[in-house]
Amino acid sequence: MRVVAAMSGGVDSAVAAARAVDAGHEVTGVHLALSRNPASYRSGARGCCTVEDSNDARRAADVIGIPFYVWDMSEEFHDDVVTDFLDEYAAGRTPNPCLRCNERIKFAAVLDRAVALGFDAVATGHYATLVDGAAGREMHRAVDPAKDQSYVLGVLTAGQLEHALFPLGGSLKTDVRAEAGRRGLLVADKPDSHDICFVADGDTAGWLSEKLGDDAPNRGGEVVDDVTGEVLGTHGGSWAYTIGQRRGLRVGRPAADGRPRYVLDIEPVSGTVRVGGRERLAVTRLRADRPRWCGPAPDGPLRGTVQLRAHGREHAATVRVVDDHVDVELHEAAEGVAPGQAVVVYDGSRVVGSATIVATDRAEHAARADARPADERARA
Q: Where is this site: Interaction with tRNA (predicted)?
């Protein structure tokens, strides 16, 4: 096959490209320029958008012996990832830009361009595995649980998986680094990228404050006790908070029971941030929209698991597809679940699909509902 190897400048994508060559594919390395001014994005070779990263990718391609090009995706990245990130925070939600980048850039814009140029597939350094199942290509978790990235790939459709290659899914990260060293790749010991690549100094709250500006509707507001309604303090922008956050609340005085307070809810119109005890973070149900299925959608209740964060644990759950949204019943309560996050659905190790969380029900609300008379519950 003719394969585009997306080379970020890190060790994983370099080894993935080399393995694609070893598999007999005709490989061309491509680095994505995601900013017209790379210095405005993360520096110090800690992201995937810097000049250093582009140079590292080019050197790796030279060592592997494949053609190398830089594709300018800065306009698409700004419109589909950065602007979306700002809009979501302004609306009081907590997005994951890596999912959006995979969905709209790496496996939409890049794949579309690659196919138009006559390529058959896109190979990346993501840790996930692909197998051919009865209903077509399936995506499963990686062998290395510490590096598994199936959560951020849960936005891929069945059609996109047919044109994807993940050469590292069956390997441990330690083995990948050792292989890079044996191949003479200078990125063998390069640190992994982390944080948000387009926030140059890692200060997400400060970056949001600068970008959203003084005219944002939720520029300032009150920090309120969720039980008593007491105003505990004020803030300069609700985008500095996310559900489940404990540090940086600056409410001035402790709770009556002396225990820490956590962010429970963010009201984007008024800018009100509601806080309370940790027990009030527990969520038992959630609703999600914009589902994207990695294969056939469930045709009935699916008793499987869901993952709610990129590095979070699995939660046993029953998932139901209702019209154009997904209802998830968690078998045990989860904490810190925020609208805007993705819920990724698994059936064993297989990734079924994902959706964007729009609403949650706290465990205490469910308990109160179950305590109602049976005839009232039936009418609800």
A: 126, 341
